[in-house]
Automatic annotation (TrEMBL):
<keyword id="KW-1133">Transmembrane helix</keyword>
<dbReference type="InterPro" id="IPR048493">
    <property type="entry name" value="DUF1980_N"/>
</dbReference>
<feature type="transmembrane region" description="Helical">
    <location>
        <begin position="33"/>
        <end position="54"/>
    </location>
</feature>
<feature type="domain" description="DUF1980">
    <location>
        <begin position="2"/>
        <end position="102"/>
    </location>
</feature>
<keyword id="KW-0472">Membrane</keyword>
<keyword id="KW-0812">Transmembrane</keyword>
<dbReference type="InterPro" id="IPR052955">
    <property type="entry name" value="UPF0703_membrane_permease"/>
</dbReference>
<feature type="transmembrane region" description="Helical">
    <location>
        <begin position="66"/>
        <end position="86"/>
    </location>
</feature>
<protein>
    <recommendedName>
        <fullName>DUF1980 domain-containing protein</fullName>
    </recommendedName>
</protein>
<dbReference type="Pfam" id="PF09323">
    <property type="entry name" value="DUF1980"/>
</dbReference>
């Protein structure tokens, strides 16, 4: 009976996350099909366990002690407890897929429409302030800015372009570092031609830096 309740809990939790639109806060929606497969399997296994319980079918088990049985049930119930009690903000898979950077939604954007269409409209402004206190964030930004301001020219690469973009929108880089160059920045997309997209992205990044340096 307990196994049936746990499996039914898996099924109902997945249904709830899907209908409430919160599924993307726990997994990358690119792999949402796995959630639907697990939902179907949970439902089928729950029916099997219900049949075994009602018919009193004897099954072979290696869980002989009471402690082993309680432990196995507790481990199986952990995902249900996490899904119902843990705060969803800290489990936002969109932030994880962006490697820690947060891109705010544009003003006037309807999230319901975006969810139904599978699209997003966001500012091209990386923001990591949510991971620090205000004082700690300002200290981190100032330390990072000093590293670039001490240079005669700034080279933007795959490794640092997100950091430079954030600095250019949060701290005004003054005339001590007026020159910037783009080096080996590769960005890929399945929608737009690679060359056009890279050119547009590079131009956007460099223009933001030049504006922040009062060009």
């Amino acid at each position: 009976m307990i196994r049936f309740l746990v499996l039914a809990g898996y099924f109902e939790l997945t249904i709830y996350l899907h209908l409430s639109g919160k599924l993307n806060q726990y997994i990358n929606m690119h792999y949402s099909y796995l959630a639907y497969i697990s939902m179907v399997l949970s439902f089928i296994l729950a029916i099997v366990q219900l049949y075994i319980w009602m018919k009193q079918v004897k099954t072979h088990s290696h869980l002989n002690s009471r402690l082993a049985k309680v432990t196995s049930i507790a481990l199986l119930a952990i995902p249900i407890v996490v899904g119902l009690t843990f705060p969803t903000v800290s489990l936002d898979s969109q932030t994880v897929s962006a490697k820690g950077y947060h891109f705010p939604l544009s003003e006037g954007t309807d999230q319901a429409i975006q969810t139904s269409e599978g699209t997003t409209s966001q500012y091209l402004k990386p923001d990591t302030s949510s991971y620090f206190s205000k004082a700690a964030y300002e200290k981190e930004m100032r330390t990072a800015a000093d590293k670039y301001l001490s240079q005669d020219s700034i080279q933007i690469t795959n490794e640092n372009y997100m950091e430079v973009m954030e600095l250019s929108t949060t701290i005004q880089m003054n005339s001590r570092a007026r020159q910037s160059s783009l080096q080996a920045l590769s960005i890929t997309t399945p929608v737009m031609p690679i060359a056009n997209f890279c050119s547009a992205s590079a131009l956007s990044i460099v223009s933001r830096i030049l504006v922040s340096m009062d060009y």
